[in-house]
Every structure is written in C-alpha cells, then in structure tokens.
TrEMBL record:
<dbReference type="InterPro" id="IPR027417">
    <property type="entry name" value="P-loop_NTPase"/>
</dbReference>
<feature type="compositionally biased region" description="Low complexity">
    <location>
        <begin position="9"/>
        <end position="20"/>
    </location>
</feature>
<feature type="compositionally biased region" description="Low complexity">
    <location>
        <begin position="162"/>
        <end position="181"/>
    </location>
</feature>
<feature type="region of interest" description="Disordered">
    <location>
        <begin position="1"/>
        <end position="27"/>
    </location>
</feature>
<protein>
    <recommendedName>
        <fullName>DNA polymerase III delta N-terminal domain-containing protein</fullName>
    </recommendedName>
</protein>
<feature type="region of interest" description="Disordered">
    <location>
        <begin position="152"/>
        <end position="189"/>
    </location>
</feature>
C-alpha cells in the first residue's frame, strides 16, 4: 500500500466570508477592499433589519466600557453593526473589551474587527478566528491595473461581491510608477 500523499503547504484560496454572520474579521492593508467588505456586512444586516444602526469605534479616545455601551440593547429594538477600526493601534482597554464581546456575543449585534497588520491585537484576532469569525482578507493591491480592475469589477475582498462597483475617475496626476520612470529617462539624457 502506498503512503498517502503529503498535503501541499500552499493555502487554497479561501471561500468568500458570509456577510450575514454575527462576527467578522477584516484583515490586511488594502483599505479599498476593507471598505467594501465592511459595506457588504452592513448591507447584509440592513437587508435583515432596515433599521440597523452602524456604530464606528475608533481606537483614539476609547475608554474602558465604551464597547458595552455601544452594544447595549436599543430602546427601539434595532439591530447594530459595531465596526472596530484600527485594532493595530488599539489600547489595551479596547482589546480587552473586544475579546470579552467575542467570547460572549450580544444578540442582535454584528461585530466587525478591522485590523490592517502587525502583532498588536493578535490575541483578539486569534480569539475571533476560533469563535468562527468570517474572515475577509484584504491583501495589498500592488499596481494600478489591479486597482482599476477592482474598481470596475466591484470586487469586495471576500465579502461575496455584494457591493456596487466604485466609479473609476480619470486622474490627471501620473502614477508614482510613471513619474519615477520619466525621472529615470530624464536622468539618462
């Protein structure tokens, strides 16, 4: 009998995350894709409840317990989408409160964790993955052609393609690559 083949270490492309889930992790440096992933989650929540409130939490000025206030039930019973931006710059208080919320989710609250990169908040990210968060990978867009195709195609970085395409406005400014290559040509003359 032949031994089973070793699995390839290369990761297969992840299936798009379900934007209707209660917990989402939006990771990576590309803000264009991250905005679209967050928008898809908000649209999914609003399709279930049009009165859904969106609460954006920024790391600057966060005080311990603010997250509990933001996720507390509404007097009118609306659902909430709470988006925690900039977790790579978050205070210990915000990370601690977010971990508690990941461990004990609140009904009618969708939590979106936005983390660009780095080690800060890694324990929170690991806890979210372990809790079954929908993961939206937002890898860096490396060239203008990719950015233009994403704008034209309306891709949303793993959020299922639910967002509308962003208009692609013509730019009168040359790209950094065009500018650098024209400077090199001028220097050779």
């Amino acid at each position: 009998m032949t031994p089973p083949r070793a699995r390839s270490r290369a990761a297969a492309p992840a299936a798009p995350a379900d934007p209707s889930g209660p917990l989402h992790l939006v990771t990576g440096p590309e803000d264009l894709l991250a905005e679209r992933a967050v928008r898809a989650v908000v649209e999914a929540a609003r399709s279930a409840d049009p009165a859904t409130q969106v609460v954006d939490v920024l790391p600057g000025g966060y005080a311990k317990g603010d997250l509990a206030v933001h996720t507390s039930p509404s007097l009118f019973g609306e659902s909430k989408v709470v988006v925690l931006h900039g977790l790579e710059d978050a205070s210990d208080e915000l990370i601690t409160d977010a971990r508690a919320l990941v461990a004990a989710p609140v009904p009618d609250v969708v939590l979106v964790l936005r983390h660009r990169s780095g080690q800060r908040g890694k324990g929170l990210l690991d806890a979210a993955r372990a809790a079954g968060a929908g993961v939206h990978q937002c890898a860096a867009i490396t060239n203008d052609g990719e950015r233009a195709s994403l704008r034209g195609a309306g891709a949303c970085g793993g959020a299922g393609g639910a967002s509308s395409p962003m208009p692609s406005a013509p730019s009168s400014r040359p790209s950094a690559r065009t500018f650098a290559s024209s400077r090199r040509r001028a220097a050779r003359r």
